[in-house]
Specification:
The protein has one domain: Rossmann fold, CATH 3.40.50. About 55% of the residues lie in helices and about 15% in strands. The protein is built from seven helices and five strands. The chain has a five-stranded parallel β-sheet with strand order 3-2-1-4-5. α3 packs antiparallel against α4 and α5 crosses α6. The longest helix has 16 residues. The protein starts with a strand and ends in a 6-residue tail after the last strand.
Length: about 140
């Protein structure tokens, strides 16, 4: 399963998304495409802050959410979150709480996180993370 981070979905929602990214996503089995409830919150927050709020909310509700599995922050993810946060803090490593929750969900599902933000997520032990946006910057 591939879990799309907020930045990957945001690229897809652009007026002219990169065709290479759309093609890469299109080659995945739809049942293997996911995001997290944390990412949905970030997308909605971004839409509300945008000058094109209605356009983005419509795109999220009509094109993203009906076509992707949304993984919750459940009990298993919460346990992984707590353990991982404690380990990282002990090592003096800081990761934002939303990113750590996203990572915990991915770890609980043994999923790959597709992001453009390796800098934040590469600090998390055991997380399988790939930069899907490097070719499009």
């Amino acid at each position: 399963m591939i879990v799309f981070d907020t930045d990957v979905i945001s690229f897809v929602l652009r007026p002219r998304p990169p065709t290479g990214l759309i093609g890469r996503i299109g080659r995945l089995d739809p049942s293997a495409q996911a995001t997290t409830s944390i990412n949905v919150g970030e997308l909605v927050y971004g839409a509300w802050r945008s000058s094109q709020k209605e356009r983005y909310l419509k795109a999220i509700n009509e094109h993203v959410l009906p076509n992707i599995v949304v993984l919750p922050f459940d009990f298993r993810a919460a346990i992984i979150f707590g353990e991982t946060r404690a380990v990282l803090e002990k090592e003096g490593i800081s990761v934002s709480e939303p990113d750590l929750r996203i990572a915990a969900i991915c770890l609980s599902k043994k999923a790959v996180l597709a992001t453009g933000n390796l800098r934040h997520f590469s600090k998390i032990p055991g997380l399988d993370v790939e930069d899907w946006l490097a070719p499009f910057r």
